[in-house]
Amino acid sequence: MDNSIIPYGRQFISEEDIQAVISNLKSDYLTQGPLIKEFEDKFAEYIGSKYAVAVSNGTAALHLAAMALNVSEGSNVITTPITFVASANCVRFCGGNVWFADIDPHTYTLSIESVEELILSKPKGFFSGIIPVDFAGYAIDLEKFRALADKYNLWIIEDACHAPGAYFIDSNQVNQRCGNGNLSDMSVFSFHPVKHIATGEGGMITTNSLELYQKLMSLRTHGIVKNEGAYTNTLAEAIGHQYNETQVTWPGWYMEMQQLGYNYRLTDFQAALGISQLARAAENLERRKAIALKYKEAFEGKKWLKGQSGFVEGHAYHLYIIEVENRLGLYNYLKEHKIFAQVHYIPAHTMPYYKDLGYKSGDFPASEAYYGQCLSLPMYPTLTDAEQDRVINTIAHFYE
Ligand SMILES: *Cc1c(COP(=O)(O)O)cnc(C)c1O
């Protein structure tokens, strides 16, 4: 029997991907070149949004999204404890306060009821926004979240890092793709190698708002604006000491730094890889769904199974999660058999950093109950049928 290592997730790099990167390396632009816009346009088309802004990673995407919505000291923002910590940290980067609300134990995503309960426990106008997460690739019902956000005057940053290609069906039977910008103010994606599309490090923000798009473009590059219509200095200041009234055009070198931004740019060789990866994204998503269906059928009805991702329409299956008896035992047994399952996630509110801010174990019972028994199984497009059988059989051996 093949005994190679099976991780929980991994990138899929094809020969075309390699050629695309090499071809960029031989071109004029390693960064700030034409491939960035091409990647953004193609990504926006895939996701269904008007605009997309490529950035250096998913965390930078979250940071810029929070900045663009003016999160600052005293801002109060709600998110889920069952996420990668960056979903919450982006609020802290801007000096705002993070408020966690519990998850729905069936979908593992932020419970809209716990969010509303939290909102109602504070004075009117206390909260400024919500960061729900399409956790594991499950598309949250953003129609319901939008209605809640509008009721309490909140913005929504959708953390769609797990969910490119995922969708839910709204009350008008319209297929709403994660990140299409119809129901969130902005959505963020990551191109870390374990995610659907890999560029090494990389991220994207999608939005349908021109105003937010322009802000993001400037914040990504130091807060610099290069657009004569937007300059606030005078032409005399722009030209300098040799200015006279006959000079009516802005000098070619001129630009303005209008606010404090960052260098959160993606490189062109990463964009080259992203464009090439994106071309296979739909196909890879189908493979993930087939793997999910096979897991679901293999585990259904097993008495050690407490819950699982199952087969849900529109799910993007970044992760396939099972909730089991003796999770630690199973994790170690799989590891002995070179199958590296993983746990997503240690609840953010139990991290010492958030405990120092006032949270404690016991605060979010559904999240903690989930954490106590969850395990993410190998899930990536190049996982072969034989490898998946090995995972399924090893789990069966452990329990039988
Ligand atoms: C991966 C991930 C991020 C952060 O993305 P990076 O590209 O690693 O910075 C944020 N949120 C979620 C839910 C993620 O899975």
From TrEMBL:
Gene Ontology MF term list: transaminase activity
- Annotated signal sequence is none
Q: Name one Pfam family in it.
A: DegT_DnrJ_EryC1
Q: Which SUPFAM superfamilies match?
A: PLP-dependent transferases
- The enzyme's E.C. designation: 2.6.1.92
* Broad EC category: transferase
Tell me which UniProt keywords the record has, alphabetically.
Aminotransferase, Pyridoxal phosphate, Transferase
The cross-references to InterPro entries, in alphabetical order and at most eight, read: DegT/StrS_aminotransferase, PseC, PyrdxlP-dep_Trfase, PyrdxlP-dep_Trfase_major, PyrdxlP-dep_Trfase_small
- Family, similarity comment: Belongs to the DegT/DnrJ/EryC1 family.
Q: What is this protein called?
A: UDP-4-amino-4, 6-dideoxy-N-acetyl-beta-L-altrosamine transaminase
Q: Which organism does this sequence originate in?
A: Aquirufa ecclesiirivi
Source organism phylogeny: Bacteria, Pseudomonadati, Bacteroidota, Cytophagia, Cytophagales
Q: Which gene encodes it?
A: pseC
